[in-house]
Design goal:
Sulfatase_N, alpha/beta, five-stranded mixed β-sheet, Arylsulfatase, C-terminal domain, globular, Alkaline_phosphatase_core_sf, Alkaline Phosphatase, subunit A, calcium, 493 residues
């Protein structure tokens, strides 16, 4: 792999030969502003940022002034969960759900859990969010992580920079590509960047905004690799949180009480067993440091938009591919269906968005694409299955979904109606892991999911109703386990 120094955009174009967006279209003035009714879009997706780890959402420890400001000036969808994934690398299928607005069983090329390609390659006949925006007249530009196949990327973006096709890397040794007009991205064109990843991608985003002068709305996609491990934030952020001041979450336990079906996946090996309180405090401090550094870098993107005079003309979207346990429930990773792992931040700020609202309507990450399209007046592909949140933003409805479900491999399924949440665990015939059992949580009175109330006879009707909802949802989604009984097994004592 060749080495290459970080470079700025210039009017000469990228090293791959793709011209930059600093020249007006023929016969049009060079104003850099969107067309009426078509706002610019800055779509930011983080890696591993769980839904509650933002100051504006009630977390009193983590410092996120920029995201707090975006939330105060826009609308936050607080009850958004990911669809899930069929492998431990939940990032790739989760991003595919965001890109396509389709459940992973129909968005991906196959359902073989042991085939890593099937967990990342999007079907060639499916149109993606940036592809759809491009077809609607948007200039699409990508920066950062694309954890799906290169073919789906190539048909979605007309430009890009610092493109990372790997799932993760050291934050100061980031293998990237320049934009390739051929869409091939041969391995020999990959090179290493040593600027910290969050700053590297932000530099590219800021340069794009500063140089953009085309009389055409843009869709700028910025995909960070933070706060994913290794959690090695640069100073002064690395020292921002003293682990001795970190309070353990209410659902911290030293060991998970039963086999979830994937207890020794890579993420779970990041801390010793049983979990040590002091070690977990250190992990949380490092996690928050990464988030605060990310927040500051997002602030640079905001300031670039303001300096350009287009911030108020831009739809700003912030979300994440999934959450993370970091010690909650005795777990470290995202390979589970507790809310710390499936609930994600989702903030919309821009033209026409209500200010300072925190919506609690149930939503799935397959609803993000339809919502962005709706806010931009863009027609959706026929195959899109997600539901737009726009009626909720407009005050026309309080609900778009009665239930939301999520999956993990062949060992876990979840459904929630917002108040109650049922998790069904299976024993995998493929890996001979997992436990046949259920959990039921009352999220209204137990948001940290500390008390499994499935054994309470008073909740039998709730379990029956949610089990029925889960079975229907699995069938509608094309779930690989749709023919497997969902009838609740007896809860364990």
């Amino acid at each position: 792999m060749k080495e290459k120094n970080t470079k700025k955009f210039s009017s000469e174009g990228t090293s791959a030969g793709k011209p930059l967006y600093d020249k007006p279209l023929p016969g049009k003035p060079s104003i850099g502003k969107p067309s009426p009714g078509k706002p610019n879009v800055v779509f930011i997706i983080a890696d591993d940022h769980r839904g509650e780890a933002i100051g504006a959402f009630g977390n009193e420890t983590v410092k996120t002034p920029v995201l707090d400001s975006l939330a105060a000036d826009g609308t936050s969808c607080r009850n958004t969960r990911i669809f899930g994934g069929l492998s431990g690398a939940v990032c790739a299928p989760s991003r595919a759900c965001v890109h396509t607005g389709i459940p992973i069983f129909r968005a991906m090329i196959g359902k073989d859990m042991k085939n890593r390609e099937h967990s990342s390659v999007i079907r060639p006949d499916v149109r993606l969010m940036p592809q759809t925006m491009q077809d609607a007249g948007y200039l699409t530009h990508a920066i950062g992580k694309w954890h799906n196949d290169k073919a789906s990327f190539a048909r979605s973006f007309g430009g890009g920079d610092k493109l990372a096709f790997h799932g993760m890397s050291e934050h100061t040794s980031v293998p990237v590509y320049d934009y390739d007009v051929t869409g091939v991205y041969p391995k020999e064109n990959e090179y290493m960047e040593h600027t910290f990843s969050t700053e590297l991608f932000t530099d590219a985003a800021v340069n794009f905004i500063e140089n953009y002068q085309v009389d055409q709305p843009f869709f700028l996609y910025v995909a960070y690799t933070a706060p994913h491990d290794p959690r090695t934030a640069p100073e002064p952020y690395a020292s921002m949180y003293d682990k001795s001041d970190i309070q353990l979450p209410p659902n911290f336990v030293s060991e998970h009480p039963f086999d979830t079906g994937d207890m020794t996946v890579r993420d779970e090996k990041l801390a010793q067993w049983p979990r040590d309180e002091n070690e977990i405090r250190g992990h949380i401090a490092d996690y928050y440091a990464m988030i605060s550094h990310l927040d500051a870098q997002i602030g640079r993107v905001v300031e670039a938009l303001k300096a350009k005079g287009i911030f108020d003309d831009t739809l700003f979207v912030y979300t994440a591919d999934h959450g993370l346990a970091v010690g909650q429930h005795g777990l470290m990773g995202k390979q589970n269906l507790y809310d710390h792992s499936v609930r994600i931040p989702l903030i919309f700020r821009g033209p026409g968005m209500p200010k300072g609202k925190q919506e609690l309507a149930l939503a799935s990450n397959i609803d993000i694409f339809p919502t962005v399209a709706g806010l931009c007046g863009v027609e959706l592909p026929e195959e899109t299955e997600g539901i737009s949140l726009c009626p909720i933003f407009a005050g026309e409805s309080d609900v778009i979904r009665n239930i939301v479900g999520a999956i993990y491999r062949d060992v876990q399924r979840m459904v929630t109606d917002g108040r109650w949440k049922l998790i069904r665990y299976y024993r995998s015939p493929e890996t001979n892991t997992g436990t046949e059992r259920i959990q039921l949580f009352d999220l209204l009175n137990d948001p940290w999911e500390t008390q499994d109330v499935s054994a309470d006879p008073a909740n039998a009707r709730v379990i029956e109703q949610l089990a029925s909802e889960m079975a229907s949802w699995m069938q509608e989604s094309g779930d690989i386990l749709q023919d497997k009984p969902v009838n609740p097994v007896a809860p364990l004592a």
